[in-house]
Amino acid sequence: MSDHRITFRQATALDVAEAVPLIYSSGPDVCEYIFYTAQKGGAQAFFAYAFTRAGGELGYDNHTCILRDGKVVGIGAIWSGRKTFRFMLADIKKILLFFGLIKGIGVLIRALKAELLIQPPKKKEWALAHLGIDPVLTGKGLGSQLINHLMNAVPIQKNEKVVLDVSYINPKAQKLYERLGFKVTRSRSSALTRKKYNIKVPGHHRMEYL
Q1: How far is CA 185 from CA 11, 70, 126, 162, in A?
Q2: For 140-172, how does the pLDDT look when each residue is reduced to its tens digit (9 = 90+)?
Q3: Is 156 helix (H, G, I), strand (E, B) or coil?
């Protein structure tokens, strides 16, 4: 039974306060591994900067909000692999502007290492990512509604597929994706760590909508 209080809309830069913690919740270990620096702090500081600027994977224009009674309670993104190169250029620019050249290069190196674990979508793939629901409202079907909305909102062709990545330590999310028709097609363990900051990235499953 649908909840008439649920609506969807394109995210805007003004959603930053609600959106950033939700995006971060989709993969905090990976986020901190890539973006944490002693000078700038945790990943959410960069996310706030990147989200309020259009373009790239983290820009507000790449995200859709789910609202309940007009309040943002979830967020997610889906994009075609045809945008991968364009997104990469936009993200590199944001990283260098936010972190500076020296620290920015370190961030970019860690991002490349993380991409060996969580690969960008290929040309005929759609990436479903940055999925976050207000923890007070988890278990109420909002995640399923958000994913279905995102997948129905883009022109997926018959020869294309939707992919996502889920952490080994998030079996609850994996079960949700399986209920929606996703299957694990590849699993990769992880050796990504930043011992100085006690950051360790778990392995991930790649899942495809079949």
Answers
A1: 31, 37, 15, 12
A2: 999 999 999 999 999 999 999 999 999 999 999
A3: coil
